[in-house]
Amino acid sequence: MALARHIRLVVKPLVEIPGVDDVESALKKCNATGLVEIDEDNAVCRSTADCSRNGGRAVSDSSVGNTAVDSVRQECRSVARRDAAPAKLHRETLVWTSHDGITQVRFCSDQSEFELTGTDVKPLDEYTIVAFYGSVERGCEDVLKERFVSHESATEALMRLTGSFSIVYVSFRTNTVYVFKDEIGIRSLLWGRHDGVITVTDVAFGKQTEWYEIPPEFMITIHDEIKVVNRGLTMLQKLCHQSKIAYSVLTIDDVNHAIQLVYDGIASAVVELCDSRSIRDRVTILFSGGLDSSLLASMVAQHVKDLECIELVNVAFKPKVAPDRITAICTYEDLTRIYPEVNFKLILVDVETEEYKKVEQELMARIMPNNTHMDLNIAAALHYAVALKGTVMQPQFIHTEEWQEIKQNVALMKSINLRVTISKGSDTQTNNEELDGGKDGTCENEHSTDNTRKHDRHAKTASDESDVVDVLWEQLIQLRGSVNAADEDYTSPSKHVIIGSGADELFGGYGRHAVAPPTADVSFSKEVNKDIRRLWKRNLGRDDRVVNAQGVTALYPFLHPSVIRVLTHLKLNAATVVDALECPEWVKSLGVYQSLQYSTFKNCEFLHDRRNREVAIYINKWILREIAVRIGLKHCVHFKKRAIQFGTRSAKTFNRLRGMSNRVASDKGATIIMNNDL
């Protein structure tokens, strides 16, 4: 396993430092909700511009022992007793050590002892030290080379750094230590305090310490006092503030232009992120076969050149197959059909219950301060996925008669880009003829059989879908012996993996987005706004800690600046969810509308007995689904949003170990895990 990246700053105050309680109070408040309120008038950096080492070394001695360290400590305490003001960082106290890929530097100020440790700690010149966790974008080196003469100029310039990183920047010129992360919040950075000692680190440790994720809107500075400096509106917050044009006044030309811009933005993000990977002959994607990961796989196939293979990593928790395994094979078939010249490797990762039990405590420690049932279930799926160990499914499997026969029943897992809501007691009447608008007047899906039509008569529930998946997999086992019968063991050497996080937040993928009341200015609804703004707390920090533990770096194309800039400048709100029964005329000309599986709904009981019921059929993430249609991805267009813990069945494994029913587990999903839960 590759060495996991690491960053840690320990601050031991020698005297009381003002501001510590205020900083901790601010962190506690925003960690409770995941939301950060910004006062733009008091923000240091109102606009983020893309920015783009010197080789001098400070005092360095890789063989420093305890005697030298004690000497530094005595010097620090001596300095702290001086009456100098303002507080100074003392370069003469620097002591460097290095061991097993970890570098540590110790130094002191008039007020504190500092210990900075990490896998990428280095002097930029004789007055500047920087510890990187992650990476800044090309072109930012000029900012880091600047010899800042004032605290204000350093703060403003450092906040213009772009990339995906957490950084501790030490300036002996401004006598300040700067702690901050990228403005999306992609990398983890935590604050903890115990017995007066402050620790900033990428991963929590010690149960006695209460940890808080540092939000991307904050820079923490340590000088005469410790304080929070507000960045100002981040890219995501600016996106949430944009007013848009109502769907009712858009033209099809407006819509097609928006779709093309989104496509180009995602393609640009994929190309740029893939250019950063260290293993150049392959691209690795965490792959459920759902809409988001399938689009990214297609973008890589189209736009990243000179690849030996594209690795599609799919996780399933046993004993029975997960829904994501079925959807992955379906979309794998689509990809190989569209891009016959590309070598796609579908890597099947199967997780046994006993194996999961062995790592559960480790995962719980890794995700802190996130601590719910849902967090642990998501972490489990990610942990096994980014280990990149499994078996490669043989390509000939999708050409067997057995798979083609079983695939007919995949229609049972569709309808699925659609959310059907029924309100009893409404005077609204829904006409069955409204459902007859399939392409060319047909309402049959391409794989309709007597068997699928029989099953389509049943309204779908989560339980029904689970049963369907089990039936499909049982057929696979019976007809072929085992899907893995001819597969080969495989471990990917990749150090970077592409993950589809952010698509649901930016394009309206959650069920709650469909029913959220619209805003007067057609901007994001409160639900979408909230989900976007708390990504750093609910998702990104946790996922980074899990992925990094395997020595792997996560790449997020949907959260790349090129995508966010496109969405910010679009005329329309990309996260609006469309009701297929009450939509503007331009929606009906889209491929995603014309490919709806209307037969599923015509045969549902609630449409036949429609008296006193209001029916809505919602299409979420319609822009991404339309791009998938135009690319030729037939299956994933209709696969619904399925959270990773349910698609992989990591949640079911967790529930089974604790004897919880799915209903009880669902009720507890967002609750904190107590010690007796593990």
Automatic annotation (TrEMBL):
The keyword Magnesium does not apply. Keywords: Amino-acid biosynthesis, Asparagine biosynthesis, Glutamine amidotransferase. Residues 427-463 are annotated as: Disordered. One of its GO terms (biological process) is asparagine biosynthetic process. CDD domains: Asn_synthase_B_C. InterPro entries: Asn_synthase, Asn_synthetase_domain, Ntn_hydrolases_N, Rossmann-like_a/b/a_fold. Residues 436-463 have a biased composition (Basic and acidic residues). This is Asparagine synthase, putative. The keyword Amino-acid biosynthesis applies. GO terms for molecular function: asparagine synthase (glutamine-hydrolyzing) activity.
